[in-house]
Amino acid sequence: MGILQSLAVYIAMTFLCRLARFSRSRKFGRSSKTRWANRAWGTIQSSIALLVLLSLLHSSQAFAAANSDLQAVLTGSRQRIQNLDYRVTGRITRVEGDGKRTSYKFSGKAHWFPDGLRLLSVISGPGSGKTSILLHMTANGHLTIDAMLPGEKAPNALPFERWNDPLVGTDFSYEDMVESQFFWKNQELLTPEKYGARDCFVLKSTPGPQDKSHYDSVKSWIDRSILFPVHEVKTLHGTGEQKEFIYYGLRQIDGAWSASQVEAKVQGKQGSSMLVIEGGSGRAKLGMKDFDLSPSSAQTKPSK
After folding, report:
1. What is the pTM of this model?
2. CATH no. for residue 268?
3. Interatomic CA distance for residues 22 and 159, integer angstroms
4. Each residue of 203-235: pLDDT tens digit?
């Protein structure tokens, strides 16, 4: 029983005891009744005031604790992204509902510069040319995407209308390649939950007017002990369609947590897509020249 419940019971019992003693008394007149009523009413008023005060104190403490947790989650998530300096290779595989698989080679690199994050991904596969995309996100979450698609001679800014297009036919979109939701203006910490065996914070991120996104909201289940997401549900604007992301094989490399596999699945549709990291470095010491999207630049380098 909480402190407020205990106090309420105490007040009620005290009032009933006084009422019982008053009713058993044989010597009371009108003035006695009045004095007793005034004392009883005064006790009730004082008790109510104390209850209100304690309730406000309890609410204030709960708000402070929740706000502290929210700041810890946001700070940890943002710092993780601001410390990125990786180069990886792997594959993206689309698995159809009937089990048919189509795999694409994937290479990626990311580094946080003074003007924000740059993330370059290069994807190639059977029967398709090379797709190169460069995402730039500033510290306030402003996102731009440049792409050089198969058959194009030079990179171009990808129009916002295409940010939600499937990336080489998979369940990942261009926008899904960066975790911009942690930098959106509106953040709310929901009731903690378990995801599998992990105790998680549940963070709901919604874009503000200045945040460009095709999603109305993103809910992230973030492991409390390492502040890394293990599950996300993104809700598309307009349709309400939800896309689920599950992070597997969490590991700490060079002091940074990452996932070895990420599965993307559109709820209510058959099949899913899997991004698998097979090699790379978490401390790649990248520079601005490593994010040149021009055709003459080397798009990938061997992993060390």
Report:
1. 0.77
2. 2.50.20.10
3. 81
4. 999 999 999 999 999 999 999 999 999 999 999
